[in-house]
Amino acid sequence: MKTTIEEVSKYVGQEVTIGAWLANKRSSGKIAFLQLRDGTGFIQGVVEKSQVAEDVFQRAKSITQETSLYVTGTVRIDERSPFGYELAVTNIEIIHESVDYPITPKEHGVEFLMDHRHLWLRSKRQHAIMKIRNEIIRATYEFFNHNGFVKVDPPILTGSAPEGTTELFHTKYFDEDAYLSQSGQLYMEAAAMALGKVFSFGPTFRAEKSKTRRHLIEFWMIEPEMAFYEFEDNLKVQEQYVSYIVQSVLKNCSLELKTLGRDTAKLENIQPPFPRITYDEAIQLLHDKGFTDIAWGDDFGAPHETAIAESFDKPVFITHYPTQLKPFYMQPDKNRPEVVLCADLIAPEGYGEIIGGSERIHDYELLKQRLEEHHLPLEAYKWYLELRQYGSVPHSGFGLGLERTVAWICGVEHVRETIPFPRLLNRLYP
């Protein structure tokens, strides 16, 4: 019976064959322990000299790291293993011998590992992170599909910039200027006017010359937009969604979280409602914590976000930022027009902003005024303005950065480990 490591629990006491790679091994005179992986998981294969042919045992002792093979053996329960099962090996068939595999069980520097990212992905830690990333994506589709959202795919090549022009990747689109998308938001607003509640999931690009542990040049965003949803409605969707993906990871990725050494008690607490503070209150909180250099109207940096998050054991919304700090499309507070109806969601434990969202301006004249104030070309945004001419309604949306969210849920320090092939300021290879 051919199967996978993930499925061996169905075959306890039976002989199976698994296509796998050798992740590691150790052996003594009469027994060899093979750490096997097949992409679905990791399992230990036990080869006892007295139970197999001599050539099989010699193969087990001489096999090299990352050699591909078919392993046949009997599945048995092993309560000492985090996985819960092991394989009593009866035969080994080598498919391809791996020679001088560069990533050994010893310590390697980050740059070396990044140069070998195509191989580093095979390690148990990276495997766990990628499985959790996959679970977050699966749960995202499940959440939005179950809540009446329609998946819409905005373009990656655009003629205008939703977040301003300073961080754009420019390219030529035949005889026109074009840019790699910073966000699908503007197009998602158009889709919301047609389909009500929509979401996108795709790559975005920021030409920001930053080297922090929170930044990537290319990253993935989940961007919902909702017609007839005002500011409060928007915040409720965000906390329900974030709670949903965290609880899904806890339910379906317990082994991966254990592999990463994640403190799951902190994640179990992630349930709505989330705490909220205004920008004004955040400034005061920072002053109380000794950040005397920050004034009203200043944006928050990573140390500020971390200090604010330390006061809460759940993600915290910071709401009502100054209008001058935020993009042109955000709806001002009617009672206080110098601030906008927006919120950043700050993750606990120093992981920073994972969501930015707002109610969008739905008044034609105000949006036109904002575009002019930001010195953006009206012709390029003509189609976006037209959304406010033909049955405009209050609407809201947000964007969640997948990699920062993966980093937080996994408890890993740097976002470079949360995407299969990270694009950083100094890295386009592999």
Automatic annotation (TrEMBL):
Listed SUPFAM superfamilies: Class II aaRS and biotin synthetases, Nucleic acid-binding proteins
A Gene Ontology term for the protein's cellular component: cytoplasm
Compartments, record wording: Cytoplasm
Gene3D superfamilies: Bira Bifunctional Protein, Domain 2 (3.30.930.10), Nucleic acid-binding proteins (2.40.50.140)
Chain ranges of the Aminoacyl-transfer RNA synthetases class-II family profile domain: 130-430
Keywords from the UniProt entry: Aminoacyl-tRNA synthetase, ATP-binding, Cytoplasm, Ligase, Nucleotide-binding, Protein biosynthesis
Catalysed reactions, semicolon-separated: tRNA(Asn) + L-asparagine + ATP = L-asparaginyl-tRNA(Asn) + AMP + diphosphate + H(+)
Domain of life: Bacteria
InterPro entries: Aa-tRNA-synt_II, aa-tRNA-synth_II, aa-tRNA-synth_II/BPL/LPL, Asn-tRNA-ligase, Asp/Asn-tRNA-synth_IIb, NA-bd_OB-fold, NA-bd_OB_tRNA
Root EC class: ligase
Main location: cytoplasm
PROSITE patterns per the UniProt record, alphabetical: AA_TRNA_LIGASE_II
EC number(s) from the headed UniProt entry: 6.1.1.22
GO MF annotations in UniProt: asparagine-tRNA ligase activity; ATP binding; catalytic activity, acting on a protein; nucleic acid binding; transferase activity
GO BP term, pick one: asparaginyl-tRNA aminoacylation
Pfam families hit by this protein: tRNA-synt_2, tRNA_anti-codon
Subunit (UniProt): Homodimer.
Entry similarity comment: Belongs to the class-II aminoacyl-tRNA synthetase family.
PANTHER family xref list: ASPARAGINE--TRNA LIGASE, MITOCHONDRIAL-RELATED, ASPARTYL/LYSYL-TRNA SYNTHETASE
Protein name: Asparagine--tRNA ligase
Organism: Anoxybacteroides amylolyticum
Lineage, top ranks: Bacteria, Bacillati, Bacillota, Bacilli, Bacillales
